[in-house]
Amino acid sequence: MLHTRVPERLETELKERAADLGVSVSNLVRNVLNHAFGLVGDIVADGAQVARSAGGARRPAAPVSSRDVLGWQPLVLNKNAVCAACNDLLARGTDAAVAITDVAGGRPMVCLPCLEEIRRGRDPFA
22-56 pLDDT, tens per residue? Predict the structure, then answer.
């Protein structure tokens, strides 16, 4: 659990954004932080070192390896989500797929274009 103080203006913006996306403020902040570490890893040449320095943070929404995914279950989203492979926003009511894994952790979602890449034998997480 993490507690932090933020300016009132930022708190208001976080609450508004979370409401717009249909997620809790806690989930919004968690997703933003998780994806920020993923972006740092992509931008910085030594992303692995940066992630270790930041407490081992990776893109937790995505499996460490596509080997961990037993399969992908198509679904219609009841809540907004973020594609674990390409970070696109997945709006409530749209089609996506959820990972069925054999490891503990989150249940990553992917958008339909990333699911198609998986069907073609490509790894969108690579």
Answer: 888 888 888 887 776 655 555 444 444 444 445 54
Query: At a CB cut-off of 8 Å and minimum separation 6, what does 77 contact?
Result: 90, 91, 92, 93, 94, 95, 96, 109
pTM to 2 decimal places: 0.50
Annotate 5-51 with DSSP letters as a single string: ---HHHHHHHHHHHHHHTS-HHHHHHHHHHHHHHHHHHHSTTHHHHH
- Of 64, 28, 67, the C-alpha closest to 48 is 64
Q: What is the pairing mode between strands 95-101 and 69-76?
A: antiparallel
Q: Are 93 and 120 in contact (CB under 8 A)?
A: no
CB 108: neighbour CB atoms within 10 A? 23
Q: How far apart are CA 105 and CA 83, in angstroms?
A: 16
Residues with Cβ within 8 Å of residue 95, at least 6 apart in sequence: 74, 75, 76, 77, 112
Q: Which amino acid, residue 33? A: L
